[in-house]
Amino acid sequence: MNNDVLYEDEIPGGAHWSMLMRKGTSLRLIDKLGGANCGMLFYNPSNYLERYNAPDTLKCQHTFKLTKGNCLYSDMGRIFCSIVEDSVGWHDSIGANSTKKSVADKWGEHSYQDFHNDWYLNGYDSFLVELAKYGMNARDMAANLNLFSKIAIDDNGDMAFVADNSKASDYIELRFEMDTLVVFHTCPHPMNPAAEYPKRPVIYQIRKAAAVSDDDLCINSHAENQRGFKNTELYNIGCGCHD
Prior knowledge:
Strand content: 25-35%
Shape: globular
Number of helices: 6
Largest sheet: 6 strands, antiparallel
Number of strands: 13
Oligomer: single chain
Helix content: 10-25%
Structural class: alpha+beta
Strand order of the largest sheet: 1-13-3-11-7-6
Order of helices and strands: EEEEEHEEHHHEEEEEEHH
């Protein structure tokens, strides 16, 4: 194992998990077989009211997709994490989340009572299970990311799911700029048209992050990111707003 890897595990397809990532560590997510989807949410573990903000993340960086050099913002103008490595090149920021109904309509209803470990989970309920571990519920759910997935827009503004956007062993690495509660699932993207419920596992590695340099791509890719890093720095030394 790489000396920078502190811990490694695999999340099966159609499952969910959560963890506390510390400032100065990074989370590398690896698409084991190709075609994975990883729905993600982020929260401040000291104040769950501070959470990932998709609109601010996109408008601050003038982007529709997320890739290396982008930062993921909280609704307090701080940066939870930065994308420091990415072999995929496009991660969905607006495709939303699957639900029990959308999964049943597309692939049939596979309950745990009838199918046991072969049951079909959905993204919405998977998030709820993880959020409940921290005393949160549906009111605390924000718009999520869908890592490894891509949504294309045609000239008429219609959205379409892009198959095979992520290949086997593709990865994305998130460097955490502040302590962050990470909630994620490996349920299918809600727009995935696959004939069968796709179960694509994701490997995750917790790593020691390299020191942030003055010429860091994520800091300098957009002027707003420089302000976001400054806000985060102030918070980390106890000078930022906590409420």
